[in-house]
Each structure stands twice: as structure tokens, then as C-alpha cells.
Amino acid sequence: MAFLLQHPQFGTLQFVASRRSQRITIRRRPSGVIRISTPRPPMSQSAAYKLVRDLTPELTTIAAQAPRLYTDKDMIAGHIMLIIQQRAVTNITTAVTSTSLRITIPQDMSPSAHAVQTIIRQKVLLVLRKEAKLLLPERVQKLAQQFAPLGVQYQRLRLSHSATRWGSYSSRGTLSLNIALLFLPGASLQEHYSAIDYVIIHELAHSVHLNHSPAFWQLVSQMKPDYQADKALLARHSPYL
Description:
The protein is α/β, with parallel strands linked by helices.
């Protein structure tokens, strides 16, 4: 069971009831909607508002994670973003080439307008998904083969976009990577690829240790001794696109 609540401070809140939920969890979806999962749903709008009041500190922290603002000359996985304002244009148009992501908007429309940013984000996701399919499977396979003597393995690779996690590994052997890994503004090319390798290695290590025990971190360190720098770089960014 699920329902939406429009909150004056936190925007759209989605309440989802699941019998599998043992506790209340809060996640911001890539769309910007804040999802609140509960063991049982609030029975009324007033009960929902009471729950929101109880969760105000957590919701305030999540709401502060503002959507990324895309600007002219941003680099998106090897594509330069060009935001062009033209007087004769009445609608927002987009074009993707091998090297650029071109957004044309009316002269009187701000590049930071919600409608513009929403369309840009949709195109960014398409670009990142395409580039991720070209880069990440090959890199995962190479690292898995390199460190196979240490016992790491995976059965399946999944590429997706999460607003909160760079990657994950399931007990069934599914290694998931966030396509947002291909967009780390300000990082040098060397730092960027190193951070991607760290996330892959981190998740592969979970095939041996499904936890973050000292043994897990020892294995990560064995595979990538300089992982602390990568971890610090990723902490300065958010996978929320």
C-alpha cells in the first residue's frame, strides 16, 4: 500500500507500507521524491503528518541533498554540455553527439529553471547509461579475474541509478554499480578511474565477506592499498543526479 503526501517543507513524500519492513526507512528517489517505508501505513493524513514531525531531523538532512545543478561546459562522461539560449527558439530541444550534449532553450528561460534541469537530467542519464555499458562490464570482468585467487567472484552485473549508493553486492552474486560513477565533477581522469575501481573492488570483496568487518577491509586493502583516497573522493560527491 502506498500514497503520496505533498508537504510544504519536504515536497512530495511517498509512504510505502511493507510487511517485510522491520523499521521505518527513508530514501530519496532519483526523481527527488522522498520515500518513507513503514511496517504499516499511517491510517490518516493527520497520522502521516505526525510521523513526518517525528522524522523531521532525518527528513531535513535528506531534503538538504539538493538536486545537482547542471551548467554550461559541464563534462558528462566525455561529453561537454552546451546550454545555448536562442531568441527564435520556443521549446527546449536536445542533441547528443559523440562529444557533446547540446541543450537549446528560449532566450528568456533560465538554464537553472526546473523544466530545463529536468530535461537535462533525462539526457544525462541516457548518456551515462550508454557509457556505463561500454566501460563498466569490461572493467568488472578484468578486476574479478585479476583478484580471483583471493576468492572474489560475481554471477551477474547490474547497472542502475540509485540516489544513495555507489554500488552493492547481493548474496545471490549480483554486483550492482551506479551509472553516476561516470560523473564525478572536478576529479582528474586518474582519480576518476581509481574511484571506479575502488567501488568495483569494494563490492567484489563482499563476495567473500558480506559485511564491513575488519577482515573485509583487510581484503579491500590487499586488492587496493590506496583505497582511502578513493573513499574520500566519493564522500565529497553524491550519486544523486
